[in-house]
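User: Can you model how 4-hydroxy-3-methoxybenzaldehyde sits in this protein?
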Amino acid sequence: MAKKKEYSCVLVETDDEGITWITFNRPEKRNAMNPTLHVEMEQILFEHETDEDTKVIVITGAGNSWSAGMDLKQYFRETDQDPVARFRAVTAHRRWADMLTWSRKPSIAMVNGYCYGGAFTALAACDIVIAAENATFGLSEVNWGILPGGNVSKVFADMVSFRNALFYAMTGRTIDGRKAAEMGIATLAVPADKLRDETLAIARELMAKSPTVLAFTKQGIRAVRDMNMAQAFEYLGAKGMALRVADPEQTRARGMREFLDEKKFRPGFEPVKRPEGGK
Ligand code: ACO
Ligand code: V55
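Assistant: Here's the modeled complex, given as structure tokens:
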């Protein structure tokens, strides 16, 4: 793996297949997100958005945690009397979550352990969440005398039922990986020793698609969440037309030709094969 740049709170490696592994790397603090981590994530995502070698982003955590949420000391207490530092930390966090949410790159959260509070912003920004069955999720804010802030109350209520959003925010009860998958917090839960292999398998599945089709598809699903029905029809109509122009692989035209004329495959059973070299 090629290491590109050194960061103090995050490890970044892009492998030969095109997976950029981003590892929250403060294991001694359970990968709590301090202001430096936010600034580094902002830089990392900005750089990798246009990195041709990055086909999929995987985010995981070093040690026993994915992330224990916001750093209660450095993100909260130490910025209480320092509005400039608070603004910078909050804004860096918000910007990197936004970049990840709308990134053209597909993203996978590989949740290896604890995932609390403010970590849900990052979790929601990832397209796919693969959790170890023994991972632990929770909105612990209520225990700290704060409410799930940033966008946590919103993204959490968007993932789970209204009743569960209220219940888990109000009690702070924890949720294991298996239950998280049932509730819609995780896409799927797998035994801890299978976590990396399952993540790799899904990353490879994504890399077999046209990157442009994938980017437009994810942005479409995300964008229509906050639209009414008429807006969704109009937007998806326009987005679909734009995709036909934007896809350098011309997947749509090729797929139609291969199915209708050449009878080479059936889209209900198998995907269109990408051309050699993926372009
Ligand atoms: N902020 C700051 N420091 C933290 C955080 C955090 N969110 N989470 C853990 N740490 C630090 C601990 O203070 C401790 O530091 P120290 O070694 O200097 O004393 C170190 O990480 C290890 O913590 P332990 O509790 O010993 O680790 P353990 O593996 O036993 O437990 C766990 C991990 C369950 C994550 C526990 O640390 C915990 O409950 N952390 C708080 C989680 C939380 O409530 N997060 C939400 C914060 S609010 C928000 O995000 C908006
Ligand atoms: C959280 C709270 C925040 C924030 C980001 O609850 C995450 C989590 C109160 O501010 O900026």
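A couple of observations from the model: The CA atoms of residues 132 and 150 lie 26 Å apart. Residues 83-102 form the longest helix (20 residues).
User: Helpful, thanks.
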